[in-house]
Amino acid sequence: MDKETQHAVTEGTSPAASGPAGSLFEGQVGAFFLLSLLVRAEPRGLPGTIIDRVEFQRASEGHPLDDVIVHAHDEHGKPAVLEIQVKKGITFAPADPIFRSVVSQIVQASRKAEFPTSRYELAIAISRRRTKLTDLIRTF
User: What is the pTM of this model?
Assistant: First the structure.
């Protein structure tokens, strides 16, 4: 089985069945990137790339920020990855347990062998009322 086929048959967890951020917002974040994939537009958070595929819920495959994973490539064919953790809200304060959890996930991701040697980006998408989705995706 080739690598492309392996990705096609790998199963993850449904966004509807996982996480407190809610399936609706997670789906909206994923749809934002799927639209970029469809029109072959440069995705937010990965400038200079084109998306190859978008995955959901891939913690079981070693993605600490597992809600939405964007796989892309640049003009030279070099791969790039963007892991996104989707949250309803976060205060970015040490006392916030959600913040502490996400920081722990970021530390885990930064310890991956490919993190320092490839283009590997991390982001948090935060749901806020009356705000455009493009304003919610923050990269680190």
Answer: 0.73
The pLDDT value recorded for residue 66 is 79
Torsion over CA of 49, 128, 100 and 44, rounded to 10 degrees? 10
Q: Which residues fall within 8 angstroms of residue 96, CB to CB, at 6 or more apart?
A: 90
8 Å CB contact between 43 and 70: yes
Report the alpha-carbon distance of residue 24 to residue 21 in Å, rounded.
8
pLDDT reading at 72 higher than 50: yes
Range of the domain at 98: 3-139
Q: How many domains does the chain have?
A: 1
Reduce the DSSP state of residue 101 to 3 states and report it.
helix
Cα 78 to chain centroid, rounded: 18
**Mean pLDDT lowest for which of 14-28, 54-68, 109-123?**
14-28
**What phi and psi, each to the nearest 5 degrees, are found at residue 44?**
-60, 135
